[in-house]
Amino acid sequence: MAFLSDRDPLPYIKRDALKNSPFILVSDHAGRIVPEKLGDMGVSRDDWERHISHDIGIKGVGHYLHKLCGSVLIEQVYSRLVIDCNRSPGHPTSIASVSDNTNIPANQSVSEDERRARERTILHPYHDVIEREIDQRKGSDNILISLHSFTPEMNGFKRPWHIGLLHDHDPLTAQIMIDMLKEDKTLCVGDNEPYILNSVNDYTVPYHAARRQMPALEIEIRQDLIAHETGQKEWAERLANLLPRVWDERKRRGNL
C-alpha cells in the first residue's frame, strides 16, 4: 500500500555531527507534518497547535543543542498523530483514535494494511537511521539522548516539574544528571516524571539502548518553558553545559 507520495518528505532529518561527540540526539516528536493523503486528519487548526500533534518547543531545543554540542541529531518530521514513533509497532496507542480527549477522525478506522503502511514508511525508516548511527559507532563509548517535552497540565493536574529525567535500564546516568540539575535551587526536577520509562509505554530508548545496555537519557522539558525561542536557547545552553559533565561522571562511576 502506497502511503507517502513523491511530494511527501522523508520521515526523518539527520543533522550530521559537527565534531566528535559521544551524544546521539534523537527527537521522536519534533515534527508535525501530515502525509498528503491524510489532509488535516479531521483535526482543527487550534488542535494542531497543541501538544497532541507534536512535542512543543523540542524541535528548537534540538537544533540549538546540535549546534552547541556538535552532536548528531536525528529527528522525526511527521506528527505523532500519524504514528507515534516512540511506541512499538502495533502498540495500541501508536495510532491514537483519541488524544487528550480530542477525536482524531483519520485514525478512527485504520485497517491493518494501513497501520503496516504507516509503520513501513514512517516508523521503521526513522528507527533504521538511528540503528545505523549506533552500529557504525561500535567500539566507541556513546550515549543516546532522547529529547521530549511535556504539557504543563494533564487531566486537571498542574505538573510542577521544569524538567524530568526518565530512565529504566540506566538509572545511574539519570541520577547523575538529576543531582547536577538540582545544583540550581530554582529548578523542580522530576525523577521518572511526568512519565515512567519502560518497554511497555516507550520504544526508542528500550529498543536502541536497553537491549544493547547502552547508556541513555530521556529528557522531558515542560512545554511552557520552551514554547518560544528564548526558552529554547536557554534550555539548550543548560543541557550543552551539563551533558559533558554528566558523561564524564558517568564514565568515572561506570568504568566505561
Protein model, in words:
The longest helix is centred in the last third of the chain and has 26 residues. The strands form three sheets. Strands 1-3-2-6-11-9-10 form a seven-stranded mixed beta sheet, sandwiched between helices. The protein is built from six helices and eleven strands. It is α/β, with parallel strands linked by helices. The protein is globular and about 50 Å long. A hairpin with a 2-residue loop joins strand 7 and strand 8. The mean pLDDT is 96. It starts with 11 loop residues before the first strand and ends with a helix.
Radius of gyration: 18 Å
Percentage of residues assigned to helices: 25-40%
The 3D shape can be described as globular
Mean pLDDT figure: 96
Instruction: Give the beta-strand count.
Output: 11
How widely separated are the two ends?
45 Å
Strand order of the largest sheet: 1-3-2-6-11-9-10
Give the class from helix and strand content and strand pairing.
alpha/beta
Q: DSSP strand (E) fraction?
A: 15-25%
Compressed to H and E, one letter per element, the order equals EEHHEEEHEEEEHEHEH
Which residues form runs of ≥5 with pLDDT under 50? none
Report the total helices.
6
Largest sheet: 7 strands, mixed
